[in-house]
Amino acid sequence: MGQIFDFVLAAGICAVLGFGPLAFGAVQPWSMCILEAAVACLVVIWAAREVANGGFHILFNPLYIPMALFAGVVLVQLFLHQTAYWYATWSKGLLYACYGGLIFLVSQVFQRRKQRSAFGFFCAGYGFLLSLFAIVQQFTFNGKIYWVVATHHGGWIYGPYVNHAYYAGLMEMLVPFPLMLAIDKRGEKASRAFFLFAAVVMGSTIFLSQSLGGMIAFAVELAVLSLILFRNRRFAYREILLLAVLCVALIAWLAWLRPAGLVERIARLLNPISDAGATGRVAIIKDSFRMLRQRPFLGWGLGTFSTVYPSFRSFYSNLWVNEAHNDFVQTLVETGIVGFAFSSAFLAVLFRDGIDKLNHWRSDTQSSVGLAAFLGCIGILVHGLVDFNLQIPANAAFFFALSALVTTRRDKSEEHQEFGKVRG
């Protein structure tokens, strides 16, 4: 009975995460509702599993503490009416409760080696299939998502997303999984070759989407992985060579596809400040700090940036500025110094445990999966300096799930079982 519950929970978490990107990033009310209801149902199923097992066994995750403190800030905003728009804060608060539920579920469900490895395979396979769809759609594009769904708000469509930057953000989180599975020496040669191919295809779509922030984030991920490998280069010549093969194959693949405008788009990285979009982002950030000065401690309220910002905008635009185009600055404005401090504590815990994964990733496949999750988190956070991927529910759900994967402690019962096998 317990194994059935475990399978249902693991499959349910993967289904919830997989649903978001396919539903255009889960940015519409109906898809957000499904996301929240599905996570709530999975929590109920987890509780049923614990009752069936004779009692509640909750595995601690150090992320719970900063999560609870951040939730306290949002509750103060709601109940003491310290928000510029109560309903917006309430709605965004429900989403963050959903993310908290995902962290809890991943911490309780993916604590064993087989389950964590299976989740790594899911991320690699899901990302590969989605990237294949994105490539096919790009080269047969008729102006509609899935060739049938028209958009009425402009945007730069790529894959199932209205905006190419959101797609790139998702791939930044997923591409480290096939890459680490390709590097892992414990896999068979055929499977490692397939995962390397999958990593090339997935990585190429970041460039095909022409998201500058995505390209920078992906480059940072590769740089971090290279540094990790060079730390133990005496034992890592094959891995370093494999990473070089990835880069060469990626360049060759893109040269063969020859997407229009890619070279010109990459050339903008040489002088990013001259780009009109970058200039607008800088102005928004300056205006955001003016907002912060008026409400420095608790901010304007979670989810209220688009409501408050028009009163502080310092430049003319016929476009609606709905986000700060910087996840860190937006968190600071909406939740103040107090909320930002708790968010920083969340990241501190994430990086502390992630750095620990750097020293043990060769030990087994689940450690490689943990390092892949950490690399994915690094990528989306780097991208968050110039965009707002964490305001997109589908991408935020993946980020928080990967954060839980990085910080989840291994189940002691499994350790005792393995210790017994060794002694036996």
TrEMBL record:
InterPro entries named in the record: O-antigen_ligase-rel_domated (IPR007016), WaaL-like (IPR051533)
Any one of the GO CC terms: membrane
Domain O-antigen ligase-related: 197-342
Transmembrane intervals: 7-23, 29-47, 59-79, 85-106, 118-139, 165-183, 195-220, 240-257, 297-316, 336-355, 367-386, 392-408
Keywords: Membrane, Transmembrane, Transmembrane helix
Keyword Transport: no
Record membrane topology: Multi-pass membrane protein
Main location: membrane
Compartments, as annotated in UniProt: Membrane
UniProt KW NAD keyword: no
Protein name as it appears in the record: O-antigen polymerase
Provenance organism: Granulicella mallensis (strain ATCC BAA-1857 / DSM 23137 / MP5ACTX8)
